[in-house]
Design goal:
The complex is a heterodimer of chains A (about 300) and B (about 120).
Chain A lengths: L2 H18 L6 E2 L2 E2 L14 E10 L3 E15 L2 E14 L5 E4 L2 E12 L4 E11 L14 E11 L13 E12 L3 E7 L6 E7 L3 E10 L1 H8 L11 E12 L8 E12 L3 E10 L9 E9 H4 L11
Antiparallel strand pairs in A: 1-2, 3-4, 3-17, 4-5, 5-6, 5-7, 7-8, 8-9, 9-10, 10-13, 11-12, 13-14, 14-15, 15-16, 16-17
Chain B lengths: L1 H16 L11 E5 L5 E2 L5 E6 L9 E6 L11 E2 L6 E5 L6 E10 L5 E10 L1
Parallel strand pairs in B: 2-8
Antiparallel strand pairs in B: 1-3, 3-6, 4-7, 5-6, 7-8
The chains are: A mainly beta (about 300), B mainly beta (about 120).
Chain lengths: ~300, ~120
């Protein structure tokens, strides 16, 4: 190969890397935020999540299988599509199966601080009414959910408390607005002809959640080599609080939710997560559920095609 | 049923894609010498960091600074030619103190990762 050709090759390589060097899923500086299982994460990314969930609630046993795909349109703006298949076993009556309503969403990551390992973003999700199975409880109305998300790593703490540096918190807060205030069911008594109307109010709720993470990879790579080997050196013990407070209607002021302690393992192309779901009160349930997640980093699997933002 | 087929197809594609070895992902440190956070008594002749993936030599850097922020290495940080997962820099004889290692690497797919750690020489 001639010097000229070598030069051209070097120039093309330089151009390629200058153009394509990029941060990706869940990074703020050296901090990696994993995709959490119950509380939506604060970053925009190309990812595919498979999530299964089993929990006994007060009136039924719920098994869910969810798929969510997120796609970056620009480096800081992404769209998401999600679907859930439900298998419900009510305390009384037979089992019900079917899809929940389709969920679509958009998220904009408007602030990232590499030095302070911080991320802020806003999003809007919509659960589209009449797109799921009525038999499985899918509503006939839509729900709009604007939300605010944040993530903060503690790598900027002083050296005197360096073992706290692997800690990170993330959170999400936002209301769910039903597009219809109430459902009216009208029945006519076949004998008397009397008309009976049953009015069920659709409540507005506030979803709020926090996650607490201790990143062992961060500890091992940036704070102190404590001798951890794989798979432990790639683990993140996590506790999530996924809560919902009713803001109006008959349930006003009531909060339900779960505390989820668990482990996330982060590989090069995917992460695996396992959490227990512990109800915070009797209104939520009396039994511990379980969540399992398989999460693919599309930007790492397909770095030059599917995993890139459409517009850079 | 169409939706079930779409989801099944998406999941199958994802699982199939999880296996290939042609893709490169973010490069993370595997281990380092001196070790992260180590307290040592002999001045090291170099700092070496092994990563879990192949690095792009043109865009991977390694520097060592003292606690005053002064660079103490001669500026020859580089990716090893034989082992392209290894980033290293030579060091002169160092006086006792705490030293800060800064690295920034680009994996073969263009993903950048960066980090830093300290070691103390007594």
């Amino acid at each position: 190969m001639s010097i000229f050709h070598r030069g051209i090759l070097l120039l093309m390589s330089l151009l390629f890397f200058v153009v394509s060097q990029a941060w990706a899923h869940g990074f703020a500086g050296k901090r990696f935020f994993p995709a959490t299982l119950a509380v939506e994460d604060p970053f925009v990314s190309d990812e595919l999540t498979l999530l299964t969930n089993h929990i006994r609630e007060p009136d039924q046993v719920t098994n869910e299988f969810s798929v969510a795909y997120s796609k970056r349109i620009t480096p800081n703006f992404g769209l998401e599509l999600g679907e859930t298949y439900q298998h419900l076993k009510p305390n009384e009556g037979g089992s019900k199966n079917g899809f929940a309503n389709l969920e679509v969403g958009a998220k904009y990551q408007f602030f990232t601080s590499e030095v302070h390992e911080a991320i802020l973003s806003v999003g809007l999700d919509a659960e589209l009414g009449r797109t799921g199975s009525r038999a499985a409880g899918a509503e006939s109305f839509s729900t709009l959910s604007p939300a605010f998300f944040f993530g903060k790593g503690f790598g900027d703490l002083p050296e005197s408390v360096r073992f706290l540096k692997p800690i990170a918190i993330t959170g999400a807060v936002g209301p769910n607005f039903p597009t219809r205030n109430s459902n009216v069911t009208t029945t006519v008594d076949p004998v008397t002809g009397d008309i009976d109307q049953d009015i069920e109010r659709n409540s507005t709720t506030l979803n709020w959640g926090l996650t607490f993470q201790y990143n062992l990879q961060y500890l091992q790579s940036f704070v102190q080599d404590v001798g951890l080997k794989e798979p432990f050196s790639r683990m993140i013990p996590v506790v999530e609080l996924a809560l919902s407070t009713c803001l109006n209607a008959n349930c006003k002021g009531q909060t339900t939710g779960t505390v989820n302690p668990g482990i996330i393992w982060v590989g090069k192309y995917l992460q695996l997560g396992l959490e227990a779901q512990i109800p915070i009160n009797q209104r939520t349930g009396n039994h511990v559920g379980v969540l399992f997640q398989m999460h693919f980093f599309i930007d790492d699997l397909f770095p030059q095609s599917l995993g890139r933002p459409i517009f850079r | 049923m169409l939706r079930l087929k779409i989801i099944t197809t998406l999941c199958s594609l994802a699982l199939a894609a999880a296996a290939p070895c042609w893709a490169w992902a973010h490069a993370f440190p595997d281990h380092a010498e001196p070790r992260v956070g180590a307290v040592i008594t002999i001045s090291p002749t170099r700092v070496r960091i092994w990563f879990d993936g192949v690095l792009e030599p043109l865009f991977s850097t390694l520097q060592v600074r003292n606690m005053s922020g002064q660079q103490v290495d001669p500026g020859d940080g580089h990716v090893d030619e034989q082992d392209q997962t290894l980033l290293e820099v030579s060091l002169p004889h160092l006086p006792p103190g705490t030293y800060h290692v800064f690295w920034s690497v680009v994996a073969r797919d263009g993903h950048r990762t960066q980090g830093d750690y300290t070691f103390t020489l007594r």
